[in-house]
Amino acid sequence: xxxxxxxxxxxxxxxxxxxxxxxxxxxxxxxxxxxxxxxxxxxxxxxxxxxxxxxxxxxxxxxxxxxxxxxxxxxxxxxxxxxxxxxxxxxxxxxxxxxxxxxxxxxxxxxxxxxxxxxxxxxxxxxxxxxxxxxxxxxxxxxxxxxxxxxxxxxxxxxxxxxxxxxxxxxxxxxxxxxxxxxxxxxxxxxxxxxxxxxxxxxxxxxxxxxxxxxxxxxxxxxxxxxxxxxxxxxxxxxxxxxxxxxxxxxxxxxxxxxxxxxxxxxxxxxxxxxxxxxxxxxxxxxxxxxxxxxxxxxxxxxxxxxxxxxxxxxxxxxxxxxxxxxxxxxxxxxxxxxxxxxxxxxxxxxxxxxxxxxxxxxxxxxxxxxxxxxxxxxxxxxxxxxxxxxxxxxxxxxxxxxxxxxxxx
Amino acid sequence: xxxxxxxxxxxxxxxxxxxxxxxxxxxxxxxxxxxxxxxxxxxxxxxxxxxxxxxxxxxxxxxxxxxxxxxxxxxxxxxxxxxxxxxxxxxxxxxxxxxxxxxxxxxxxxxxxxxxxxxxxxxxxxxxxxxxxxxxxxxxxxxxxxxxxxxxxxxxxxxxxxxxxxxxxxxxxxxxxxxxxxxxxxxxxxxxxxxxxxxxxxxxxxxxxxxxxxxxxxxxxxxxxxxxxxxxxxxxxxxx
Lengths: 410, 240
Ligand SMILES: Nc1ncnc2c1ncn2[C@@H]1O[C@H](COP(=O)(O)OP(=O)(O)OP(=O)(O)O)[C@@H](O)[C@H]1O
Ligand SMILES: [Mg+2]
Fold this sequence. Notes:
Chain A contains 14 helices and 12 strands. By secondary structure, chain A is α+β, with helices and mostly antiparallel strands. Chain A has 2 domains: 2-53 and 272-409, no CATH class; 60-67 and 88-265, no CATH class.
């Protein structure tokens, strides 16, 4: 009973002052819509740039890093050995006993899949035309499981390379420039002077010109021949973990197991991630300020309502409404305005997202990378309501402090 | 028909105003009001009648001295407790008719009862209708109060003051806007609720006939009580 009379009064105020209610709610609508839209945009971009990263990067990469020469003899306690002009002393990028390492890595609980790769510098020739690029010797089926290269195949298939030592899968850029097609022969040479004539069994197009114009895939053993190495040579191991955000932790654990360099994708792509983070922070700051400005709308309108309704507040207090009741009445009003505004804002933001996701950008991006994300809708709703509550509280508290006697005496 | 039981009394009530210059509006006010008494407060304009009434109504707490209602000391109570006390035990009719403009007459009368929550909504509605009917306003019940004449608004605010059957009803010139017919209605109503229901009326008035006809009159001058009229006893005097 007691509660319902406060709500009753608040509802009457809201209904009899439709215009002010609409203006206050509209502020929240715009604030919430823009907040939702910008955050969805930011999240879509982040997702997109991550997907781009994971086209070429596994969560964790194990490889042999270059070494700088060290003194052969341990330096005595009282003197320091100084090497002038230290040099890189790496003799080969070879990982010793890769099968054992690969097997032990695959056995780890946090490894979803793992893959060995032999990479080499490749020159693609046809007649006098020559293109520079790089080749990877991998088990193509496992590679597909990790990088979904199958999605980007425009000719042939991933499986065609399996067991075909003379087969090669090339990027569409290479095929176009050398005007080669499926089933044609291509001359591939390596920086070690090995020349092979290979048959094109697949062509891929990822949309990234860096990949499409230079990359090719062959079998592991073919790649080992290109670098003049035996069957135990491997240049890197890639592995995926269940959660890419946790990869740093897993990388640290792996580093305990192997002397080779273990690097997670965040380290490899620190520059891209830093740019993402900056953009994210900017978007959050801008959208939050807009929401804050919107909350001032509610604050203003409620303040104005309270100055105009000061007589009513005095009457209510004279007839036995306490300060808390008055705060409740005006908080209900703020919450009602906030709810109307927030719901409309979510709808409006949703429409904006819907429109934007239909915009075709072309190139590797395709459709604009924005999606409906439920957590962002929830977050925007909570923030919208929270901000209206805060904006409503201060005027409501002012209303509660009205001294009825002062009003009646005037 | 005062019962001899004190419902409200003050001890040495005093009040200062400091703007623009410090002066004492109320000075050592001590008096009793009895249960079922129709008490009037008179005095020249500016003598402090409204100020005293605000102190008695518990809305103004910045006074010295002490106020008791039903034997309980009110001075120094918390604001929320005072609000609850006003809701249940004090009805107030203001010098200017103060109503909530967006609500109907009926709703204005009902709001203090809804706040009290003693009866169900339907019962409250019925009671409110009955009060409005007694004041000749039944046909105006569903009108918005902003569309009523001054006298009608005054009567709505009287109905509102009566809705919770408060022990004390305080009025600041309740008949100031009324014609003689309606003044008569209000007077009879006050007389009846004082003498039949045992509620106490404390009314500020400038109407000498109205004061004469009440049970007792207290006269203020410059913030001091200058006369405590004797209890007249029940009277059949009606102002014309
Ligand atoms: N807020 C205030 N600040 C300073 N002085 C005030 C204030 N309110 C009232 N006064 C003064 O206090 C005195 C008493 O005022 P009050 O309103 O109680 O008079 P009253 O007896 O009700 O007069 P009336 O019959 O005209 O209503 C007056 O001199 C008035 O000027
Ligand atoms: Mg007065």
